[in-house]
Design goal:
single chain, about 290 residues, globular, five-stranded parallel sheet, alpha/beta
Length: about 290
């Protein structure tokens, strides 16, 4: 038995959105559907022969299509419907959407971060998680200049991008891994790359967020954040101009309506979906056992 967990609805073919390689998120439905036809054609051109030779060696029937087999017959949509509902045109039984699954965070904030938070007003968090960077010094300089222009305190996560400076300016702290569930509620805003986990963590914290998407589903999450009214819209990741980011941070820390909507969304995020997802998997396993017996 195989169940695919879609941490983003963008992985499921639909007229609601294009395939994951498309950055634009405001196409008409017919063009979104066409993008999925092209997506399937490309995957088949690249992989169908290799997959079917491997399947034949194991006595399995050949595949005619790839994507639908990868995501299984009835995938689980493991994100929160308050932020990203399941596709409205899924062909089949309604999809299960147990909500976002959050990592269990037993460790406290580090003493360094805790002390920094206690010494002043809530800072803005900036970090790109597992995204790498070809020029981390230039990126760090851009982020710090945006922070300087807005006059906020900031915590900057080094992450896989290696963001750092020889000397941190006053009111800025460079940090390593910290539990987002404990850090984000104490921040004024969260600036991030748009990963599904970080987007949900910021939403659950009830704080405004600025998404700087790098690739794939991150553009979808930037769009959903803007639609929810909890962020000022995506900011281009690769540009030397710090003003668009500074403008977005100002909106997060000054716009009361945006802050109110972020708090309201945080109250709607339905806890941790991991328990509900586990129950769904147990039902699938029980069905398989019944079918075999």
């Amino acid at each position: 038995p195989y169940v695919y967990f879609a941490f983003c609805p963008l992985m499921l073919p639909s007229g609601d959105h294009p395939n994951p390689t498309v950055k634009a998120q405001r196409w008409p439905r017919w063009l979104n559907r066409l993008s999925w036809v092209i997506n399937e054609w490309i995957w088949c051109r690249i992989l169908i022969g290799t997959l079917n030779r491997a399947r034949a060696s194991r006595g399995l029937k050949p595949l005619r299509r790839i994507w639908n087999n990868l995501i299984s017959a009835r995938p689980i949509v493991a994100c929160d419907p308050a932020l990203a509902p399941a596709p409205s045109d899924w062909p089949g039984p309604p999809l299960d959407q147990p909500g976002a699954m959050f990592a269990l965070e037993r460790a406290p904030l580090s003493p360094e971060v805790s002390g920094f938070l206690d010494r002043g007003p809530p800072p803005v968090y900036l970090g790109f998680g597992s995204m790498s960077d070809r020029d981390p010094r230039a990126t760090t300089a851009r982020l710090l200049e945006a922070v300087r222009r807005t006059g906020v305190r900031a915590v900057v996560s080094r992450g896989w991008a290696g963001l750092d400076a020889d000397q941190a300016p006053d009111g800025v702290l460079f940090i390593g891994p910290e539990p987002h569930g404990k850090l984000f509620p104490r921040c004024a805003a969260v600036v991030h790359h748009g990963g599904a986990g970080t987007t949900h963590a910021a939403a659950r914290a009830g704080v405004p967020q600025v998404v700087m998407p790098h690739l794939l589903d991150q553009f979808y999450w930037a769009h959903r954040v803007a639609l929810a009214g909890v962020g000022p819209g995506a900011v281009r990741r690769h540009t030397a101009d710090p003003e668009p980011l500074a403008h977005a941070i100002r909106a997060c820390v000054e716009d009361r309506g945006l802050q109110d909507r972020a708090r309201a969304l945080g109250a709607r995020i339905a806890g941790d979906g991991a328990d509900r997802a586990a129950q769904l998997l147990e039902r699938v396993a029980a069905g398989e056992r019944s079918a075999r017996s």
